[in-house]
Amino acid sequence: MTHDNLFSALRAAFPADLTAVAVETDEGLCYSWQDLDRATAMVANLLQSLDLPEGSRVAVQVEKSVEAMILYLATLRAGYVFLPLNTAYQSAEIAYFIGNAEPAVVVCSQANFGWVSQIAFQAGTQHVFTLNDDRTGSLLERAAQHSDQHQAVPRQADDLAAILYTSGTTGRSKGAMLTHGNMLSNARTLQAYWGWKKSDVLIHALPIFHVHGLFVAIHGALINGSKMIWMAKFDPQRAIAQMAKATVFMGVPTLYVRMLAEPSLNQANTRHMRLFIAGSAPLLIETFTEWQQRTGHTILERYGMSETAMLTSNPYAADPRYANQSERRGGTVGFPLPGVHLRVRGDDGQDLPVGEIGGIEVQGPNVFKGYWRMPEKTAEEFTADGYFKTGDVGKVDERGYVTIVGRSKDLIISGGYNVYPAEIEGYINDMQGVAESAVVGVPHPDFGEVGVAVVIAKPAATLKPEAIVADLKAKLANFKIPKRCFVVAELPRNTMGKVQKNLLREQYKGLFLS
Ligand code: MLC
Ligand code: AMP
Prior knowledge:
Blueprint: H1 6-12, E1 21-25, E2 30-32, H2 33-49, E3 57-61, H3 66-77, E4 81-84, H4 91-101, E5 105-108, H5 113-122, E6 127-130, H6 138-143, E7 160-166, E8 174-179, H7 180-193, E9 201-204, H8 211-222, E10 227-230, H9 236-242, E11 248-251, H10 253-260, E12 275-278, H11 285-295, E13 300-305, E14 309-313, E15 335-336, E16 341-345, E17 358-363, E18 370-371, H12 375-381, E19 388-396, E20 402-407, E21 412-414, E22 417-419, H13 421-429, E23 434-444, E24 448-457, H14 465-475, E25 484-488, H15 501-508
Parallel strand pairs: 1-10, 3-4, 3-5, 5-6, 9-10, 9-11, 11-12, 12-13, 24-25
Antiparallel strand pairs: 1-2, 7-8, 8-18, 13-14, 14-15, 16-17, 17-19, 19-20, 21-22, 23-24
Adenosine monophosphate binds near residues 210, 304 and 333.
């Protein structure tokens, strides 16, 4: 058996001096490489002592902490499958994920233990541990009884390492199955493409429930043996203050917008930095340009998704595959990464010429294995020749740069989080007195895009927008809640009777813009 455990590759990149600092929190706590090695060994030994079946899922809904990252690495090390869950998810959402993934282990905060454990035990989960963001909880207590030595469990490139749930345009969320090979190949590609240096220090400011913070950022630093400055929660002033000690920053566009609003952001405060990377949502050209003017740095924008990890990137340095172009072009997401095949196809399934707009399809070692227990859905999303249909709409210009111009999937990206209108509409439509609803995304200065709900009442029913929003807040993750709700007499429809969301988007596009 080959030894392609992602953890082993990350561990092999730890620096020779294990006493050096690997992670420093913005509150001043330091973890050495040895601390990471020992702590992941103890948690891995604990997981293995539970005698879980091969391929068991470890579902985790805890606040961001270094220990939460350790739990992720330990799960890889023990050869199990990590299933991260956003802390914003509420009980109905968690019940679906746990019911669908059937994890053998669930880890949650002490505060949520009551309701999470109830859901977990009902779904057949045997083990529920707690992990709080202050280094307490039963997981660490139990792990402390185990050895700090552990041999990583051999895994092949095709073995599952993680499942990331992504909502669907229709129906329920799908679990994207990512393998050790998917993530290792992507991490190595980015290490080379972004010119990671031995001396790099990453400011880790993103949540660790999704691809960006969990994989791109953590793997990026670890596979390079680089130190991380760890922020449990993003704060623009504190992030800027850390830049004197750091070299790399990764963020969704909202983080850049918020830092630009800080008077302390200037060339002097960012002089030590080597690279600013943005992704997960479109970076407005205004943000790109203003960042350049204020700091002298050109943001490198890249594009990816849960199913594929990173797909394209603007160049860090001259790219020999593209006539040595090195320009980071705002408004584009750059070139397909080495090893990634990207094509743009029309509705008829034919490749489109340079400059024409169509569906983006991709293939490569980073592309996921399929949706958890959804073979039909998986088959639908791949072409006959094995390309994954991203659902993003874009074009490739004559210089090779990819631009994303829209999405064929009905999706709102708000502050870097995905919100599927169909899910929100489903909840609204189930409310008493509601005949129908439509949720659309409109521009927002902070989050880029936010949802607006437009609702029709049943005859004789009276609906209050505040009550609809309050009801949603009780059931859904906070970032999914429409920022405004309107009760109207009718929705615009085409001749086929289909709601014309484009007209609603047009109608409400100025709501949040001054
Ligand atoms: C918070 N709120 C949001 C929101 N985040 N509303 C819309 N969209 C969001 N993203 C709302 C809350 O509901 C709450 O409203 C209020 O803002 C304050 O909540 P908070 O938790 O204090 O917010 P804050 O800490 O300011 O969070 C904002 C943020 C966060 C931008 C820091 O959303 C964030 O970290 N986003 C990054 C997401 C990310 O990592 N995406 C990567 C996905 S991977 P109320 O009404 O309750 O007060 C991916 C693939 C790829 O896409 O290519 O990378
Ligand atoms: P997720 O399912 O959360 O992984 O989100 C993936 C989606 O985010 C992609 O399919 C794109 O629609 C979007 N996305 C990621 N990066 C970018 C980017 N740089 N520009 C525009 N959209 C992006």
